[in-house]
Amino acid sequence: MAEAHRRALKLHCYRMLGSLHEAEDAVQETMLRAWRGFDDFEARASIKNWLYRIATNVALNMARRSKHGRTMPDQLGGPSTQRPQGRSDAETLWIEPYPDAELESLPDPAGGPDVRYELRESVRFAFITAIQQLPPRQRAVLLLADVLGWSAIEVAAVLDASVASVNSALQRARAKLVTLDRDVRQAPTADEHQRSLLERYVLAWESADLERFVSLLKEDAVYSMPPWREWYRGRSSIADFFRAVWPAYRGFRLVPVGANLQPAFALYSLGAERRWNAHSIQLLALDKDRIAAMTMFMQPLAPKLFTVFRLPAVLEP
């Protein structure tokens, strides 16, 4: 019975923690606690709600143990104008993308007038990034109420809190989220326009055509590359960065993947042995017929991500 809810629980824990790997650990702990405590489960609530209660509290404990939580470069300082110097920041906990393969056959939460976020909205990378800045308890309240559609009474039972305190936390979380989620409902991209845009994007990378690549960006596009702290805003800054970086590579290949229900690619670079080696995972945010944001998850984050995205470390010729 519990196994039937594993995939949905994993997504819930990912929203809470911002990490696919930590979400997997949280679900394992949830299943262990459910197994140990099943004799005390008296079916006063549904098995689903009981499991979500366990998972939420497991994730809350994990979030509280982390002093600073997970973040992204643009939350740590202003945009850069120079190439990165020194080494990447391996100490900071960075938010991770979520493979679309993990969302297959996963229905939207039970609908209702109080559900604010559909599945696509609730896995947007910008949304995941924004809610990580909420205190863990506010994060849990908002996810249970606005994503899963639970009543204040149900949320209060999960958190062993009063209904009044839940309503207060929800109000504060909603107000703060408005200021944090800067990817405010970007204009949808029609399928044929998106397909054309992504085809041109791949062509630009694989031909190292900087002018073509930059033409696909919004004027105020944002580029970040965790675990590096540096990030760049605007076509000009992004163009300067790639103009300096691309000549160091022999060539690129892009493999479509999909993450957070957004366009994503696995980037491979051509090595000295004439092999295509895993380089990074790219996640794009589109706005109409332009790219609004591009995030590249670089070394040493990339190897683990290639594994969870079920991608080879080396492409066959």
Automatic annotation (TrEMBL):
<keyword id="KW-0808">Transferase</keyword>
<dbReference type="GO" id="GO:0003899">
    <property type="term" value="F:DNA-directed RNA polymerase activity"/>
</dbReference>
<feature type="region of interest" description="Disordered">
    <location>
        <begin position="66"/>
        <end position="88"/>
    </location>
</feature>
<dbReference type="Pfam" id="PF04542">
    <property type="entry name" value="Sigma70_r2"/>
</dbReference>
<dbReference type="Pfam" id="PF12680">
    <property type="entry name" value="SnoaL_2"/>
</dbReference>
<dbReference type="InterPro" id="IPR014305">
    <property type="entry name" value="RNA_pol_sigma-G_actinobac"/>
</dbReference>
<dbReference type="InterPro" id="IPR037401">
    <property type="entry name" value="SnoaL-like"/>
</dbReference>
<dbReference type="InterPro" id="IPR032710">
    <property type="entry name" value="NTF2-like_dom_sf"/>
</dbReference>
<protein>
    <submittedName>
        <fullName>RNA polymerase subunit sigma-70</fullName>
        <ecNumber>2.7.7.6</ecNumber>
    </submittedName>
</protein>
<keyword id="KW-0548">Nucleotidyltransferase</keyword>
<dbReference type="InterPro" id="IPR007627">
    <property type="entry name" value="RNA_pol_sigma70_r2"/>
</dbReference>
<dbReference type="InterPro" id="IPR013325">
    <property type="entry name" value="RNA_pol_sigma_r2"/>
</dbReference>
<feature type="domain" description="RNA polymerase sigma-70 region 2">
    <location>
        <begin position="2"/>
        <end position="67"/>
    </location>
</feature>
<keyword id="KW-0804">Transcription</keyword>
<dbReference type="InterPro" id="IPR036388">
    <property type="entry name" value="WH-like_DNA-bd_sf"/>
</dbReference>
<dbReference type="InterPro" id="IPR014284">
    <property type="entry name" value="RNA_pol_sigma-70_dom"/>
</dbReference>
<comment type="subunit">
    <text>Interacts transiently with the RNA polymerase catalytic core formed by RpoA, RpoB, RpoC and RpoZ (2 alpha, 1 beta, 1 beta' and 1 omega subunit) to form the RNA polymerase holoenzyme that can initiate transcription.</text>
</comment>
<dbReference type="InterPro" id="IPR039425">
    <property type="entry name" value="RNA_pol_sigma-70-like"/>
</dbReference>
<dbReference type="Pfam" id="PF08281">
    <property type="entry name" value="Sigma70_r4_2"/>
</dbReference>
<feature type="domain" description="RNA polymerase sigma factor 70 region 4 type 2">
    <location>
        <begin position="126"/>
        <end position="177"/>
    </location>
</feature>
<keyword id="KW-0731">Sigma factor</keyword>
<dbReference type="InterPro" id="IPR013249">
    <property type="entry name" value="RNA_pol_sigma70_r4_t2"/>
</dbReference>
<comment type="similarity">
    <text>Belongs to the sigma-70 factor family. ECF subfamily.</text>
</comment>
<dbReference type="InterPro" id="IPR013324">
    <property type="entry name" value="RNA_pol_sigma_r3/r4-like"/>
</dbReference>
<keyword id="KW-0805">Transcription regulation</keyword>
<feature type="domain" description="SnoaL-like">
    <location>
        <begin position="199"/>
        <end position="291"/>
    </location>
</feature>
